[in-house]
Design goal:
It is elongated and about 75 Å long. It contains one helix and 21 strands. It is mainly β. It has two domains: about 100 residues, Galactose-binding domain-like (Jelly Rolls, Sandwich), CATH 2.60.120; about 170 residues, Jelly Rolls (Sandwich). Strands 9, 11, 16, 17, 18, 20 and 21 form a seven-stranded antiparallel β-sheet that branches. Strand 20 and strand 21 form a beta hairpin. It is found in: Membrane.
Protein backbone atom coordinates (compact mmCIF):
# COMPACT_ATOMS: atom_id res chain seq x y z
CA UNK A 1 0.00 0.00 0.00
CA UNK A 2 0.91 3.70 0.03
CA UNK A 3 2.04 3.50 3.64
CA UNK A 4 5.11 1.33 2.96
CA UNK A 5 5.86 -2.35 2.41
CA UNK A 6 3.52 -4.78 4.11
CA UNK A 7 3.43 -8.34 2.77
CA UNK A 8 0.09 -10.15 2.52
CA UNK A 9 1.22 -12.76 5.06
CA UNK A 10 3.30 -11.90 8.14
CA UNK A 11 5.70 -14.78 8.75
CA UNK A 12 9.45 -15.55 8.85
CA UNK A 13 9.60 -16.16 5.08
CA UNK A 14 9.12 -12.56 3.93
CA UNK A 15 11.78 -10.18 2.71
CA UNK A 16 12.09 -6.82 0.98
CA UNK A 17 14.71 -6.76 -1.79
CA UNK A 18 16.28 -3.62 -3.27
CA UNK A 19 18.19 -3.44 -6.56
CA UNK A 20 20.50 -0.40 -6.46
CA UNK A 21 21.24 -0.79 -10.19
CA UNK A 22 25.03 -1.04 -9.73
CA UNK A 23 27.54 -1.96 -7.06
CA UNK A 24 27.25 0.63 -4.32
CA UNK A 25 29.10 1.27 -1.08
CA UNK A 26 26.38 1.16 1.59
CA UNK A 27 27.29 2.96 4.81
CA UNK A 28 24.00 3.17 6.74
CA UNK A 29 20.37 2.02 6.80
CA UNK A 30 17.23 3.42 8.42
CA UNK A 31 13.74 2.00 8.98
CA UNK A 32 10.24 3.11 9.95
CA UNK A 33 6.97 1.21 10.32
CA UNK A 34 4.02 1.42 7.94
CA UNK A 35 2.58 4.97 7.77
CA UNK A 36 -0.36 5.56 10.12
CA UNK A 37 -0.59 1.89 11.11
CA UNK A 38 0.24 -0.55 13.90
CA UNK A 39 2.62 -2.40 11.54
CA UNK A 40 6.33 -2.29 12.30
CA UNK A 41 9.32 -4.63 12.45
CA UNK A 42 11.15 -4.94 15.78
CA UNK A 43 14.20 -6.84 14.48
CA UNK A 44 15.58 -7.82 11.08
CA UNK A 45 18.58 -9.26 9.26
CA UNK A 46 20.39 -7.51 6.42
CA UNK A 47 21.66 -9.55 3.48
CA UNK A 48 23.58 -8.43 0.39
CA UNK A 49 24.58 -9.74 -3.02
CA UNK A 50 26.28 -8.71 -6.26
CA UNK A 51 24.25 -11.01 -8.47
CA UNK A 52 20.91 -11.37 -6.68
CA UNK A 53 21.59 -15.13 -6.57
CA UNK A 54 24.06 -15.90 -3.79
CA UNK A 55 23.60 -13.91 -0.60
CA UNK A 56 25.76 -13.04 2.36
CA UNK A 57 24.59 -11.93 5.79
CA UNK A 58 25.82 -8.69 7.32
CA UNK A 59 28.05 -9.60 10.26
CA UNK A 60 29.49 -7.59 13.11
CA UNK A 61 32.12 -8.86 15.56
CA UNK A 62 32.22 -12.03 13.41
CA UNK A 63 28.65 -13.01 14.30
CA UNK A 64 25.42 -12.72 12.33
CA UNK A 65 23.91 -9.49 13.44
CA UNK A 66 20.21 -8.82 13.98
CA UNK A 67 19.31 -5.12 13.78
CA UNK A 68 16.92 -3.74 16.40
CA UNK A 69 14.02 -2.28 14.47
CA UNK A 70 11.17 0.02 15.39
CA UNK A 71 8.97 0.43 18.45
CA UNK A 72 6.24 2.45 16.69
CA UNK A 73 5.15 3.29 13.16
CA UNK A 74 6.77 6.70 12.72
CA UNK A 75 10.10 7.08 14.56
CA UNK A 76 13.12 6.54 12.30
CA UNK A 77 15.75 4.08 13.57
CA UNK A 78 19.08 4.83 11.88
CA UNK A 79 22.18 2.59 11.88
CA UNK A 80 25.62 3.57 10.69
CA UNK A 81 27.21 0.28 9.61
CA UNK A 82 30.39 -0.62 11.47
CA UNK A 83 31.92 -1.63 8.13
CA UNK A 84 30.42 -0.65 4.79
CA UNK A 85 28.83 -3.18 2.42
CA UNK A 86 29.72 -3.17 -1.28
CA UNK A 87 26.85 -4.72 -3.19
CA UNK A 88 24.16 -4.15 -5.81
CA UNK A 89 21.29 -5.95 -4.04
CA UNK A 90 20.09 -5.67 -0.43
CA UNK A 91 17.56 -7.78 1.42
CA UNK A 92 15.79 -6.81 4.64
CA UNK A 93 14.52 -9.99 6.37
CA UNK A 94 12.05 -9.35 9.24
CA UNK A 95 12.62 -11.56 12.30
CA UNK A 96 10.00 -10.08 14.71
CA UNK A 97 7.27 -7.48 14.44
CA UNK A 98 4.59 -5.76 16.55
CA UNK A 99 2.47 -8.63 17.99
CA UNK A 100 -0.63 -6.41 17.67
CA UNK A 101 0.01 -5.66 14.01
CA UNK A 102 1.75 -6.98 10.92
CA UNK A 103 5.10 -6.64 9.15
CA UNK A 104 5.40 -3.07 7.92
CA UNK A 105 8.53 -1.24 6.75
CA UNK A 106 9.73 1.98 5.18
CA UNK A 107 13.42 1.93 4.36
CA UNK A 108 16.22 4.34 3.52
CA UNK A 109 19.66 3.19 2.36
CA UNK A 110 22.70 5.53 2.52
CA UNK A 111 25.90 5.28 0.54
CA UNK A 112 27.70 6.25 -2.63
CA UNK A 113 28.71 4.81 -5.98
CA UNK A 114 31.49 2.26 -5.59
CA UNK A 115 34.27 2.83 -8.10
CA UNK A 116 36.14 -0.31 -8.94
CA UNK A 117 38.27 -1.95 -11.61
CA UNK A 118 37.47 -5.62 -12.17
CA UNK A 119 39.25 -8.19 -14.35
CA UNK A 120 38.16 -11.77 -15.03
CA UNK A 121 40.53 -14.74 -15.43
CA UNK A 122 39.55 -17.94 -17.27
CA UNK A 123 42.04 -20.31 -15.64
CA UNK A 124 44.44 -20.11 -18.60
CA UNK A 125 45.62 -16.50 -18.36
CA UNK A 126 47.74 -14.27 -16.17
CA UNK A 127 48.42 -10.56 -15.92
CA UNK A 128 52.09 -9.58 -15.76
CA UNK A 129 53.22 -6.23 -14.38
CA UNK A 130 56.81 -5.26 -15.10
CA UNK A 131 58.03 -2.20 -13.24
CA UNK A 132 60.95 0.17 -13.26
CA UNK A 133 63.63 -0.89 -10.81
CA UNK A 134 64.46 2.77 -10.13
CA UNK A 135 61.06 3.01 -8.47
CA UNK A 136 61.82 0.07 -6.22
CA UNK A 137 62.04 0.50 -2.51
CA UNK A 138 63.92 -2.24 -0.71
CA UNK A 139 62.28 -1.08 2.50
CA UNK A 140 58.56 -1.27 1.85
CA UNK A 141 56.16 -3.05 -0.47
CA UNK A 142 52.37 -3.10 -0.28
CA UNK A 143 50.14 -5.29 -2.45
CA UNK A 144 46.35 -5.26 -2.09
CA UNK A 145 43.53 -6.84 -4.06
CA UNK A 146 40.10 -8.42 -3.81
CA UNK A 147 39.15 -11.70 -5.43
CA UNK A 148 36.14 -13.94 -5.88
CA UNK A 149 36.01 -17.45 -7.29
CA UNK A 150 34.16 -20.75 -7.25
CA UNK A 151 37.39 -22.72 -7.70
CA UNK A 152 39.13 -24.03 -4.59
CA UNK A 153 42.66 -23.86 -6.10
CA UNK A 154 44.64 -21.33 -8.10
CA UNK A 155 47.64 -18.99 -8.13
CA UNK A 156 46.73 -15.40 -7.22
CA UNK A 157 50.19 -13.84 -7.24
CA UNK A 158 53.75 -14.87 -8.04
CA UNK A 159 57.13 -13.16 -7.96
CA UNK A 160 60.47 -14.83 -8.52
CA UNK A 161 64.17 -14.10 -8.17
CA UNK A 162 67.20 -15.09 -10.20
CA UNK A 163 68.38 -17.65 -7.63
CA UNK A 164 65.13 -19.52 -7.00
CA UNK A 165 63.77 -17.16 -4.33
CA UNK A 166 60.06 -16.67 -4.81
CA UNK A 167 56.90 -15.33 -3.22
CA UNK A 168 53.65 -17.07 -4.14
CA UNK A 169 50.09 -16.40 -3.00
CA UNK A 170 47.97 -19.45 -3.77
CA UNK A 171 44.46 -20.66 -3.07
CA UNK A 172 44.67 -24.29 -1.90
CA UNK A 173 41.44 -26.13 -1.00
CA UNK A 174 39.64 -22.84 -0.36
CA UNK A 175 42.37 -21.43 1.94
CA UNK A 176 44.94 -18.77 1.07
CA UNK A 177 48.57 -19.76 1.43
CA UNK A 178 51.45 -17.25 1.31
CA UNK A 179 54.71 -19.02 0.52
CA UNK A 180 57.94 -17.06 0.83
CA UNK A 181 60.95 -19.12 -0.19
CA UNK A 182 64.27 -17.41 0.42
CA UNK A 183 66.21 -20.66 0.53
CA UNK A 184 69.73 -20.49 -0.78
CA UNK A 185 69.71 -22.37 -4.07
CA UNK A 186 73.33 -23.54 -3.53
CA UNK A 187 72.69 -25.23 -0.20
CA UNK A 188 69.00 -26.08 -0.79
CA UNK A 189 68.40 -24.73 2.68
CA UNK A 190 64.72 -24.50 3.58
CA UNK A 191 65.26 -22.62 6.83
CA UNK A 192 64.18 -19.41 5.13
CA UNK A 193 60.93 -20.87 3.80
CA UNK A 194 57.74 -19.48 5.28
CA UNK A 195 54.26 -20.80 4.58
CA UNK A 196 51.33 -19.00 6.21
CA UNK A 197 47.71 -20.08 5.62
CA UNK A 198 44.71 -17.85 6.33
CA UNK A 199 40.97 -18.02 5.69
CA UNK A 200 38.70 -20.89 4.70
CA UNK A 201 35.87 -21.48 2.23
CA UNK A 202 37.23 -18.59 0.16
CA UNK A 203 35.80 -20.23 -2.99
CA UNK A 204 32.25 -19.08 -2.11
CA UNK A 205 31.87 -16.61 -5.03
CA UNK A 206 31.94 -13.64 -2.62
CA UNK A 207 34.61 -10.92 -2.60
CA UNK A 208 37.56 -11.45 -0.23
CA UNK A 209 40.28 -8.88 0.42
CA UNK A 210 44.01 -9.55 0.63
CA UNK A 211 46.76 -7.23 1.87
CA UNK A 212 50.48 -8.07 1.95
CA UNK A 213 52.75 -5.46 3.57
CA UNK A 214 56.49 -5.89 3.78
CA UNK A 215 58.74 -3.50 5.77
CA UNK A 216 62.35 -4.66 6.01
CA UNK A 217 61.99 -8.15 7.50
CA UNK A 218 58.52 -7.62 8.95
CA UNK A 219 55.62 -9.02 6.88
CA UNK A 220 51.91 -8.49 7.56
CA UNK A 221 49.55 -10.83 5.70
CA UNK A 222 45.82 -9.95 5.95
CA UNK A 223 42.86 -11.87 4.54
CA UNK A 224 39.50 -10.17 5.10
CA UNK A 225 39.94 -8.93 8.70
CA UNK A 226 42.47 -11.48 9.93
CA UNK A 227 46.14 -10.49 10.03
CA UNK A 228 49.22 -12.63 10.58
CA UNK A 229 52.42 -10.73 11.51
CA UNK A 230 55.76 -12.46 11.08
CA UNK A 231 59.46 -11.92 10.47
CA UNK A 232 61.09 -13.32 7.36
CA UNK A 233 64.30 -15.12 8.18
CA UNK A 234 67.33 -14.78 5.97
CA UNK A 235 68.15 -11.89 3.72
CA UNK A 236 64.65 -10.81 2.80
CA UNK A 237 65.46 -8.22 0.21
CA UNK A 238 63.18 -7.62 -2.74
CA UNK A 239 66.18 -6.45 -4.74
CA UNK A 240 66.99 -10.13 -5.33
CA UNK A 241 63.59 -10.58 -6.98
CA UNK A 242 62.61 -9.91 -10.59
CA UNK A 243 61.03 -6.60 -11.41
CA UNK A 244 57.82 -8.26 -12.39
CA UNK A 245 54.74 -9.54 -10.66
CA UNK A 246 52.30 -11.98 -12.20
CA UNK A 247 48.66 -12.15 -11.13
CA UNK A 248 46.51 -15.21 -11.84
CA UNK A 249 49.27 -17.69 -12.62
CA UNK A 250 52.96 -18.42 -13.06
CA UNK A 251 53.91 -17.17 -16.54
CA UNK A 252 56.52 -19.82 -17.40
CA UNK A 253 55.41 -23.37 -16.58
CA UNK A 254 58.03 -25.24 -14.59
CA UNK A 255 59.32 -22.13 -12.88
CA UNK A 256 59.28 -22.66 -9.09
CA UNK A 257 59.41 -26.43 -9.37
CA UNK A 258 55.81 -27.58 -9.24
CA UNK A 259 53.87 -28.11 -12.44
CA UNK A 260 50.66 -29.11 -10.68
CA UNK A 261 49.73 -25.54 -9.79
CA UNK A 262 46.54 -24.26 -11.36
CA UNK A 263 46.00 -20.78 -12.73
CA UNK A 264 43.34 -18.67 -11.03
CA UNK A 265 39.79 -18.85 -12.44
CA UNK A 266 37.60 -16.01 -11.19
CA UNK A 267 37.67 -12.22 -10.75
CA UNK A 268 40.12 -9.73 -9.27
CA UNK A 269 39.16 -6.23 -8.21
CA UNK A 270 41.28 -3.15 -7.48
CA UNK A 271 44.77 -4.68 -7.62
CA UNK A 272 47.28 -2.19 -6.18
CA UNK A 273 51.04 -2.54 -5.99
CA UNK A 274 52.67 0.32 -4.03
CA UNK A 275 49.78 2.59 -4.96
CA UNK A 276 49.77 1.68 -8.67
CA UNK A 277 46.35 0.60 -9.98
CA UNK A 278 47.37 -2.49 -11.99
CA UNK A 279 44.02 -3.20 -13.70
CA UNK A 280 43.64 0.42 -14.79
CA UNK A 281 47.20 0.32 -16.15
CA UNK A 282 46.44 -2.91 -18.07
CA UNK A 283 43.33 -1.33 -19.60
CA UNK A 284 45.20 1.79 -20.68
CA UNK A 285 48.32 -0.06 -21.97
Amino acid sequence: GAGGWSPLVSNKYQWLQIDLGERTEITAVATQGGYGSSDWVTSYLLMFSDSGRNWKQYRQEESIWAFSGNTNADSVVYYKLQHSIKARFLRFVPLDWNPNGRIGMRIEVYGCTYRSEVVGFDGKSCLIYTFNQKLMSALKDVISLKFKTMQSDGILLHREGQNGDHITLELIKGKLSLLINLGDAKTHSSNAQINITLGSLLDDQHWHSVLIEHFNNQVNFTVDKHTHHFHAKGEFNYLDLDYELSFGGIPVPGKSGTLSRKNFHGCFENIYFNGVNIIDLAKRH
